[in-house]
Design a protein that fits this description.
By secondary structure, the protein is α+β, with helices and mostly antiparallel strands. The protein has one domain: Beta Barrel (Cyclophilin), CATH 2.40.100.10. It has 5 helices and 16 strands. β8 and β9 form a beta hairpin.
Length: about 325
Amino acid sequence: MRSKHALGPRTDSPARGVLRCLAAAVLSIAFASQAAPPKPSTLTATDVLAQSAPSDWQPVDPENTLYLELESGRVVFELAPEFAPKHVANLKALVREKYFDGLAIVRAAEDYVVEWEDSDGKRPVKTAATTLPPEFTSASSAGQPFVRLPDGDIYAPEVGFSGDFPVARDPKTHQRWLAHCYGMLGLGRDNDPTSGFGSSPFVVIGHTRNLDRNDTLIGRVVQGMELLSTLPRGHGPLGFYEKLEQHVPIKAMRVAADVPAAERSEVEVLRTDTATFQAYVEARRSPPLGWYVQPAGKIDVCTVRMASRPRAAAPAK
């Protein structure tokens, strides 16, 4: 290896000196902009939601809502058929044939997923398909709603929200996909990409963006996430429970549209095509000073944490 001193001293030309000064100036500006504190929001995210108008929210469609009934309560899912229409339809077919009734949550992997399935493989599939082409991505087009976030992403060229779902996309390939953020609902599979037909749903309880475009996501939890995130962790391989008595029984799984109106959990979600949503993002991106000494001034798609709430009953006429 040649020593760095073997090249000898270097004599700068006037042009080289000018270029070096210009480079130093650019670096100085760049570092100054990085060091400059972000302008804090005047409101907290909680303040933004508290001051929102009823028109800033929209109800979740009962036909695209699932209930997972556990002994501890109900988990409510909003489905995203525009991203995975075949898998959403197939999961609803499984639910409607009561495939999941009496099964159990069999896996709670730390910082990863909670998953439920027929652990002994004896539950028959009656009406649903048992193989489906993967829907890891879908085509993107100019007419689709997309609210882009300002700070970029390490997993995709662009990230933002389509409706109230976290989305990544690539303008060069014209592909988009749901992001594996906390609370997202997906369908487990074996090595064969066509094997994830819906018999093993999972919910993300950690950081799993590395799974983007490797399995099919079909929705997200909008109520009851704490019933899944606080489950005891499995200590078997891949976080599966080692003993049958550790399994968490499932009472039933239902499409909300099939449940009597009086027994439904009416939920509404924050619209992303509003000024309120922009304020909500900025409040999480650069929260007011106080507890925060140095707000981050940046946000990624999974830290927006989309808001949902019980829907107020309509006033009696």
